[in-house]
Amino acid sequence: MDRFEAIRLFTRIVELGSFSRAAEQLGITRAGATQAIQQLEARLGVRLLARTTRQVTPTPDGSDYYQRCSAILADLDDAEALFSQASRTPRGRLRVDLPGSLCRLVLMPALPDFCRRYPEIRIELSVSDRQIDPLREGVDCVLRIGALDDDLPLVARRLATLPLVTCASRSYLERCGRPQSLAQLQGHHAVDNLSATTSKAFAFEFMLAGQVERLHLPASVAVNDGGGYVAACCAGLGLIQVPLFHVARQLASGELEEVLPAHRPPAMPLHLLYAPNRQATARLRAFIDWAGELFARAPEQLAG
Length: 304
Prior knowledge:
The protein is an alpha/beta fold.
């Protein structure tokens, strides 16, 4: 293994915290990875990685070396892209992490267009609603709805601001009444939407005279999945608050009805995130531009 390959291996081990996962991504054996790092440490005369049974972390020298190596590799990738066919025809594997509802209802129906435009890009989607570190998880970019985690030093591009709606099934409203004010929510029930990180139910939010009013309604059912959350609402189990794209079809068909449209919750931002120490590759730049076009649509047009 030459010096640059060993450096690239070292940076992936630091980012993933694992010899095995880094070796798998780079298509080498774990034994080969171990030998390459031992040779790199011997050549430098310092220990770069601290190994335990559970994880691999950089030593202080390893952290300094990682920062230097990351910058060198980013510059090398950028230089090669400028002078290669890849700069004109994006190609290779692109790994994207995003919430399930966004994948199922928005990205997947539009993905054939991306594949037609960029036939040499293989796009791999991982679906999760939790905040992740793209470097440690081995993904190129992340799509996230809502407030960002300031602890992760990522480059963020805002793609859209998504309106939220409060809604309930027609059967529920016919049974329990259609509230015309916040005061008339007394006696109504909600479906609790549980946070993927804290497992606590999100409060309902309403805009009233320019201020955000938060309240918790009693709930018989709690869900930590976006699809299940909407399904519970369609089953008549209570009110929910979701991005408009998530229920656009049900609202259009009349299966669900918007409640208190004059007091919609505050809109939520949608960001695309990627690591700052990696220059955007041609394939990532292509996806960023395409996603920007996709989410520039009107909110009610996003669902399919």
